[in-house]
Write a structure and sequence with these properties.
The chain is an alpha+beta fold. It contains eleven helices and nine strands. Helix 6 packs across helix 7 and helix 7 packs across helix 11.
């Protein structure tokens, strides 16, 4: 039972409404009762304090003559009359200046409350007289003479009044009891009203829930009598109208779903057809690009390089001819000829590099693994601040030529991006031929560079080209990167034999 009360999330609306209505009232009732009790008690104590001090002070003023003159009987009658008039006074004592008891008057009414003592001194006024010692000077009042002739007071006794707060507390308790009774009646009326309202609300809500359950079961046409008013009635009317609208909407939706399904099936077939055509187009474009690169490399190798070799030979012949010319002219021509030889050699090297990039002949000579290893060595030599390493696993001997060239290009583009953007210290290229499960050619390039946020960073032209090439070959490209923690590129291509 206790666990059920503590698990307030399982409460119903009736319990919640009752708690919402009663908790503030109960809290206010307890707070008012406590506050009223302590405030009444504080008022009684304050009244007792003021009354005791005032009574002691008045008795001290009125008892000055009796103490000085010794008229004790007069004081005794005064004290007895005061005690009979005020039942809260337990005792009044008049003491001498040396605190010797002179008079004691005690009340006859007993009290269970703690008594409080209030004391006031009985003082006699003394007047100092100006002796007018200097008779030659006029006597004028001034601040000095005023202080000398000022009145002083002597303590001749004490008045001690003992009072109990019985009457004051009784009055305050009676007021508190009346206030508590009124608050209790209001609380009980509020409890009854809260229970009536919560029961009525839960009954109508249960009816509303039953209507909603019918709708959930598919019984859309709802016929019910609205027996309440206010927002609950509006809710029930809205639910009934919603059920009718859902019935009409369901019929229309079924027709639309049937029509849309046929259209989606046709669009799916068209999309599959378009996707296959796109893959074929990408493959043809890549093939055409590689073929054009091959033709360009052949043209550069056969014509441009041959021309450069001829230029070098002609320059050497010029050097041989100018040896017989006079010194000033021969040396100048000799220098120009050697400059031509150097330029031709540089152009020849550039042309061979262009040929190598256009058509990596090393693939035909060494295969994919040898070509990639040779490329890794070139990158490692050209970029001493970064360590490039290569790992291989599997048999690549009968790999299809177009797949080998594509893999080579993908690795080449990935390494180019590392040099441009990563600022890495180490790069590892892994090439694997997975021929048992799924027959895949797996390429993995890992660097320890600055990385990037793969979710927010926009891909560059190089990365877009890599994705298109991988998509054209029917493979997958995955990039894992975190800012400051490097980048890993994983490419999986269907393995095809030559």
């Amino acid at each position: 039972m206790t666990m059920g009360l503590l698990n307030w999330k399982q409460w119903g609306i009736k319990s919640r409404m009752t708690v919402i209505a009663l908790f503030p009232l109960t809290l206010m009732f307890v707070f008012n009762a406590g506050y009223s009790y302590y405030s009444r008690l504080s008022e009684a104590n304050q009244e007792l304090e003021e009354r005791g001090r005032l009574l002691a002070s008045l008795l001290a003023d009125s008892g000055e003559y009796g103490v000085i003159s010794g008229n004790i009987s007069y004081l005794e009658r005064t004290l007895k009359g005061l005690i009979e008039a005020d039942k809260s006074i337990r005792k009044i004592e008049i003491l001498s200046s040396d605190r010797r008891l002179l008079i004691r008057s005690t009340g006859s009414v007993a009290s269970n409350y703690v008594a409080h003592n209030f004391e006031a001194p009985i003082k006699r006024e003394l007047v100092s007289v100006d002796s007018l010692n200097d008779l030659t000077k006029p006597h004028l009042p001034s601040s000095a003479t005023d202080s000398q002739t000022a009145q002083s007071k002597e303590v001749v006794g004490y008045v001690v009044v003992t009072i109990t707060p019985s009457e004051m507390l009784a009055k305050q308790e009676q007021r508190t009891l009346v206030q508590f009774s009124i608050s209790s009646v209001v609380l009980l009326l509020s409890i009854g009203l809260a229970l009536i309202l919560s029961v009525n609300l839960t009954r109508q809500l249960a009816k509303t829930v039953a209507i909603v359950r019918k709708i959930r079961q598919g019984n859309y046409p709802i016929h019910t009598n609205i027996t309440t008013g206010g927002e609950i009635a509006e809710l029930q009317i809205a639910i009934v109208e919603m059920a009718d609208s859902l019935d009409e909407f369901r019929r229309g939706l079924e027709e639309k779903v049937s029509t849309r399904t046929k259209a989606l099936e046709a669009a799916r077939d068209e999309a599959l057809k378009s996707n296959m055509e796109k893959l074929k187009l990408i493959q043809k474009v890549n093939t055409a690009v590689e073929e054009e690169r091959k033709l360009l490399s052949i043209e550069i190798h056969d014509q441009l390089n041959s021309t450069l070799i001829g230029i070098r030979l002609e320059a050497h012949q010029i050097i041989d001819v100018v040896k017989e010319l006079p010194a000033p002219y021969g040396e100048e021509i000799n220098g120009k000829a050697r400059s031509i030889i150097n330029l031709a050699s540089d152009l020849y090297g550039i042309a061979r590099e262009i040929v190598r990039r256009l058509r990596p002949e090393v693939i035909d000579a060494l295969g994919l693994c040898g070509a990639v290893e040779e490329m890794i060595q070139q990158y490692d030599m050209r970029h001493p601040t970064c360590k490039f390493s290569f790992e291989e696993a599997g048999d690549f001997s009968d790999l299809a030529d177009d797949l080998a060239i594509a893999a080579y290009r993908l690795i080449q583009e990935a390494l180019s991006n590392v040099i441009k953007h990563a600022a890495a210290k180490a790069v590892i290229v892994t090439l694997q031929a997975l021929l048992k499960d799924g027959r895949l050619l797996k390429i993995k390039i890992t660097d320890d560079g600055k990385g990037f946020d793969s979710e927010t960073a926009e891909p560059g032209i190089g990365l877009i080209g890599m994705r298109e090439r991988v998509h054209g070959l029917g493979g997958q490209l995955k990039i894992q990167s975190t800012a400051g923690m490097g980048t890993t590129i994983v490419i999986e291509l269907p393995f095809r034999r030559s």
